Amino acid sequence: MLKLNDFRFPSFEALVAFEAVVHFGTFERAAEALSITSSAVSKRISGLEAILGVSVFRRDGRTLSLTSHGYEYFAQVVPLLGQLAAIPLHQRQQRLTFRMPPTFARQVVIPRLAFFAEACPEIELEIFLSTPSGGQGMPFGDVEVRGDSHGVASNEQLLEERLLPMASPELLSGFPQPWTPAMLAKLPLLRSPLEPWQFWFRIAGLDWPEPTSGPRLFDVGMTLEAAANGQGVVLARPSLARKWLVEGRLLPLFFPLSSMPTHHYHLCDHQRTLASQRFADCLRTICCEAVEQGNHCLLRQTTS
């Protein structure tokens, strides 16, 4: 048994404040994260330094940096805090803000909210929609899905699949089968900066420029809905078009002729906590399910 009188133990609140200041870089940002005042954080750090008998931070005006003692102590304390946080009886529901594009939310996440609740009961989700303009004025989000990322490694993509043209049965009714890519010259092509046609044209052997007529739609869901209403041909991901494919309002064209997306859905974990990592694992699971279901819709449509 430990002889407590032989040790100088700081308070748990002081250790948490110390970890938060190191993580966020200032007393003010640490206080905001801990929902306390910056003066309370300062007092906890001062109390910690008094118990340890050394300074853990070097203060240069408004700039903070760890001292050599602070570096050593941080390396020792953080694993202990992680072990305490991992004990189930210590855990309570944690709030996690999640930002994502509208169509990704409606077609991938919202239908599977019950899965999140069951898999991560300790997490309270707050969901916000982002926009192509960046959603200025909206909360930044602990976890964010971006739909406009370039150069994302395949193992980091949330919806790893290919694009193919889709159109409504009404729009295609005047074209006898078998349908060929050349028929697109007689059809309106829906334009979106998120998924340009140029790369699919090359795959299809069409030496055509990017379409220049018709409105440009900056939301994937709007583009899919426009196509389902017979307003043109859309170049889309099967996972995001599942609803319209199942309803028969969209038909895949020229399958398996497809192209890689120019933009990728990519998960950004700004918090990097146990809760955000658990949530990210759940999100990857439902994204894999969405891709699998999208492929199933394609096979069912093309073999019927």
From TrEMBL:
Q: InterPro entries in the record, alphabetically?
A: LysR-type_TF_proteobact-type, LysR_HTH_N, LysR_subst-bd, WH-like_DNA-bd_sf, WH_DNA-bd_sf
| Family per similarity comment | Belongs to the LysR transcriptional regulatory family.
Q: Which UniProt keywords apply?
A: DNA-binding, Transcription, Transcription regulation
Q: Locate the HTH lysR-type domain: which residues?
A: 10-67
Q: Name one GO molecular function term.
A: DNA-binding transcription factor activity
Q: Name one GO biological process term.
A: DNA-templated transcription
Instruction: State the protein's name.
Output: LysR family transcriptional regulator
